[in-house]
Amino acid sequence: MATGVAWRLTAPTELQWVQWGDEWVLYHGATGDTHLLEPLAAEALQALRDAPVTTEGLVAALAGDADEEGRRQLSTYIGSLFETLSRLGVIERA
Amino acid sequence: MKVSELAADDLDARLRGRGVYLRTGPFVCHVCSPIASVANGIHLLYANHALSTDTAFADFHVRLTRPTGLRRWLRPQVLFHMDDRTPFKPLPLGQAFPMLEWGLNWCVANHAHQYLVVHAAVVAKDDRAMIMPAPPGSGKSTLCAGLVARGWRLLSDELTLISVDDGQITPLPRPVSLKNDSIAVMRAFAPHLAMTDECHDTVKGTVAHMGLPRDSVTRGDTPAQPAWIVFPRYKPGSDTSLVPRKKGATLLEVARNGFNYSILGARGFNCLADTVARCGCYDFTYSRLAEATDLFNALEPTVASPAGGA
Amino acid sequence: MTAPLDQLTPVLRQPERLAALGHAEWDLLVRQARSADLLPRLCILLAEQDRLDAVPERPRTHLLATKVVAEKHAQQVRWEIHRIRHAIAPTGVPLLLLKGAAYLAAGLPPARGRLFTDIDFLVPKEELSTVERMLLAHGWVASHLDAYDQHYYRQWMHELPPLWHLHRHSVLDVHHTILPETARLHPDPDKLRAAARPVPGMDGVQVLAPIDMVLHSATHLFHDGEFNHGLRDLVDLDDLMRHFGVDECFWRHLVRRAKELDLRRPLYYALCYTRKILGTPVPEAVMAAAEAGGPSPFAGTVMDALLRRALAPEHPTCVERFTGVARWLLYVRSHYLRMPLHLLVPHLVRKSLKKREALAARPTRPVVNEK
């Protein structure tokens, strides 16, 4: 995953959410797809709502007071999540 | 007027001629066919169904015919038409009545987008509905039959119609489709209900259709409110267990079983989210039918847990 | 002019007739419109006239249900356009959309209540392989055509063999001109591309200029021989001409441009039959000028008999004697117009055999798996 790549939502006005506890269900109007996300994934996606975000920027925002190892794992997770969301058409490179 | 008020040969003559207009739940189906087993099946299993008084407009115009050609005599077949379309290849003539049932399901699932049409059985007690999405072999039909014998109303055994406008479940009372082992189970369990002969070697295995209890048909205009979504699984030797399941996962699983969920787009999503929010969602395992029905009879409707949004 | 039971054509010509229909007429109308892919459009027409609530309940339910399908189609096409742009953007080749996708992108009247099938667009011939390569890299695959069909498309027609998407199952038709090189008429694709208009809000996306759009639609209907959407395509033409015809420039330049693009014959038929069947307000002067591009009186009489039948709704209740023959003759004619005769006969035989194979390949299992 290239560093410094910024991501944005493909169709920000067409997302609808429903949440029960730790389950987040997303309807993406542009593609007509429905996705089930865990809380961290939902939080990551919602961080893109207002403006494009880089992986590094998101890790910094979400890591809180996590240690080095924690940040590394978060970075891997977000990188992989964004690849998946990009393939599904929910996000695209800004 | 009900189908049972027509003599068998009168029904047969009408089907060969201008057809009959059957009321099935919210739909009027205009059916024509020169095939004897279709007439017999309708006479047997639609006895309590009403014939529509309005023959000017039908929701679906369906015909079952015997395709012409040399095959007509060598290996007789049946072809299903909905108006000017023939969506399926012909089947062996012996499967004519099942083909009518499958064809009518196709009509509803492909056109009735005023509903979210889910591949699930639905029964109701005191107008509170339990939706049971279930793949074949899950014991859904047996469980439904058991519940019906204990006072539940069968709204549909195959297609659950959830109104997109107001979330109510609209009944679609049509013959129950049984496959393989459940045929013998049902003959033993409900010998008073009419059943067609078995059709062997269909794509679904051995198939038969069973008539509905009269109450399920005569109350076919009364909607029900969704109260439970239950995924049943018959497992020989198991204890009866009802385990809550997560709503998000339930939504996705029901969506996968939704014939027209994708077509409905945001409407489908919102309808389904509302339905799941209102319902108690469970996985259910059983091996003893009596225990299973006892458990459901004692079940109280859960308080709806509205979803959070973003 | 219309078959006795045809409810659809009169209602398209005079929408106010919808208010007076009884249940039996609604039954025929719903079935005929569904067969012609015009049922969602009827719903939109009624909604625009504020007459939807007055429709009896059962037919109204069908109208509203079919509108849901049209909305889904539109959503899918919008997304496809988005993905095609994404795929070919690096090439710098503009995405010049044609037909339904163009109407949707540009917000034109024929997009209302439309049921879409494939997505068509035009690229320069020299960019075809580049564009094809980019599309293949983004999940589209070439159709499983045998060598003959591949050759037919690439050599003789004006498009790549259809591409379909692995996950989304959408189908793309990539054209480099609007008629095959072997055809009798030779509209210059460079001229079409030069006059193309950008679509506001969609970078890199273009549609044909208004007059060219009408000419292309006319050519597609009256030259291509695919009459299974005949009435719907005629409605498109009527829509486009009413919409663009508000600007007097459109009428003034229409015949001249048709001459420039060698498309006078299809234009003649388009003006003639939209007027006859749908009452399109074509100015007299324009019709008179277009007649110079019309067929000989004898050919005109023959074509009139064929076209009247072929442009009727396809539904069995609207079929008159010889309708089937008329459609077949027009089909053969379209191929004759596209291919030399010595290629035509073997081609038609092959097509007929393939059609029988396709019928045999329909699903056996009456399973519903609507996507």
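Strands of chain C lie at 95-98, 119-122, 140-142, 163-165, 171-175, 197-198, 205-207.
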